[in-house]
Design goal:
Layout lengths: L23 H7 L6 E5 L5 H10 L2 E6 L2 H9 L3 E6 L15 E7 L8 H8 L3 E12 L4 H8 L21 H9 L3 E10 L7 H5 L4 H8 L6 E10 L18 H28 L1
Parallel strand pairs: 1-2, 1-4, 2-3, 4-5
Antiparallel strand pairs: 5-7, 6-7
């Protein structure tokens, strides 16, 4: 789930444009060093692996539980090896013995019954100084908040309310989840997306303007996903700093959100002008 809307017929597939940072794939790729060894957990059709292999000379190993998607990934010839595994089964990772500079978990943990166990099993596969890159959808996106006020909580084939999601996360719970897996979060970033998307935006207009403005004023209402970088924790005790200090948006994120809101407001204005002219 790298973006609010898929750009191909394959579920959660997307076209990668690393210039666009409001995309979890772009943010993960930006964190990876040239020539690294990467374990792509939940590699799907291999879009990320293909980019890493082609553009960054990375050696990539993929894991997925969907045979159809694995066949597509194999056809890309980007992966050193591909493994058809059920990540919920004990011993599923036994056939993988290499160490990796990066372990990617792109929108995986929300689909699992026991995601903490998976991460604990992955930690031994991380090389010294290696990094986990984890993307997680945000259940406090404005579309979810406004939908609940209209008594709507409708599952879909993809997106934040994907019908296969077993868990839902906020900024704080995503941070806590990763910390509690024996990892130390080193970077916490956001993927922004407009609150009013596709056909749902019209129903939200039924709500009082003051309520909509209140939801719009919350930065987290514009967050589609969180992307966390984390290292295996070397000490048993957690760092003594404020655990939530790392989830505060930085200036670059605030600037990206400001630009997104400007583009969104301009699109709304243009659509209103077009509607007026058509009358």
């Amino acid at each position: 789930m790298s973006s609010p809307e898929s750009e191909s017929g394959i579920k959660y597939d997307t076209v990668i444009d690393v210039r666009v940072m409001d995309n979890s794939h772009s943010q993960m790729i930006d964190a990876i060093n040239f020539g690294s060894r990467v374990l792509d957990v939940g590699c799907a059709s291999g879009v990320v692996g293909a980019h890493l292999h082609r553009e960054m000379q990375c050696t990539v190993v993929g894991i997925d539980n969907d045979e159809k998607l694995l066949r597509i990934a194999k056809a890309s010839k980007a992966y050193e090896s591909l493994h058809h595994l059920d990540l919920e089964k004990a011993g599923a990772l036994d056939e993988i013995s290499e160490n990796f500079d990066y372990v990617l978990l792109g929108d995986i943990v929300e689909h699992l019954r026991h995601p903490t166990l998976l991460i604990e099993r992955l930690i031994p596969l991380v090389a010294v100084g290696g990094t986990f890159l984890i993307s997680i959808p945000n259940v406090t996106h404005g579309s979810i908040k406004l939908g609940l006020l209209l008594n709507q909580f409708e599952y879909a084939d993809e997106g934040i309310l994907d019908r296969t999601h077993l868990r839902f996360f906020t900024a704080a719970s995503a941070y806590d989840f990763v910390q509690n897996c024996g990892l130390e979060v080193t970077k916490f970033s956001r993927v922004f997306a407009p609150i009013y998307q596709q056909n749902r935006g019209e129903s939200f207009l039924k709500l009082p303007r003051a309520i909509r403005r209140y939801v719009e004023s919350d930065t987290e209402s514009w967050v589609f996903q969180y992307v966390l970088s984390a290292l295996p924790r070397v000490a048993d005790d957690a760092c003594g700093e404020d655990l939530y200090s790392k989830i505060t948006p930085d200036e670059s994120e605030i600037d990206r959100l400001r630009k997104l809101k400007f583009r969104w407001a301009r699109q709304v204005l243009m659509s209103k002008l077009l509607a007026f002219r058509e009358k």
